[in-house]
Amino acid sequence: MSGLILLIISYLSGSLPFGYLVAKKVKGIDIRDHGSGNIGATNVFRTAGRDWGILVFFLDFFKGFLPPLLGRYIFFVSGDYLLIAAAVLTVVGHTWPVFLKFKGGKGVATGLGAMWGLAAVFPGLWKVLLLAVIVWIFVFSVFRYVSLASILACFSFAVLVFLFGQPLPLKITAVSFFVLILLRHRENISKLVKGKEHRFK
Prior knowledge:
Layout: H1 2-15, H2 18-27, H3 41-48, H4 50-73, H5 80-95, H6 108-119, H7 125-143, H8 146-163, H9 168-184, H10 186-194
Helix pairs in contact: 1-4, 1-5, 2-3, 2-4, 3-4, 4-5, 4-6, 5-6, 5-9, 7-8, 8-9
């Protein structure tokens, strides 16, 4: 029963549309009608300002970060698959939130938080994550595209999970997360190819 409760909490946590709520509060707008139409931190950054975008990033990060920790240290879940399912459901919730008729964000910040949450219970995963974050920083610093940096960082994460010999459940999760990120960034990839993607100055 505690496992089921954890999974429900994880999905609902992921479903909290912080980008939508912050933009509504500070700008009085529906962010889905502005910028890229996405409810994530990057669009909030562009639409409502840097500080609000940073706030939304951390809110989205922590809604992914906390459920795996709740599972291990509050619900005392010991099964790896259940903890990973909790992490995955936060990303599912962010991407398909019940509170916004299942039309949500792209899952990068929440996915990053979820993986860091798992790193607290899977030894060695933090090294993989740190390298993936370095890839993101490098790609963004050179090319100034958030979407490209996110895609390549997720790809690196999926590859590094295999190279570092992480457990099979994490390998499956990493590959699935990369596929999800690709699917959610289809429009961005098309714009990158056409040279029309938004570039940070």
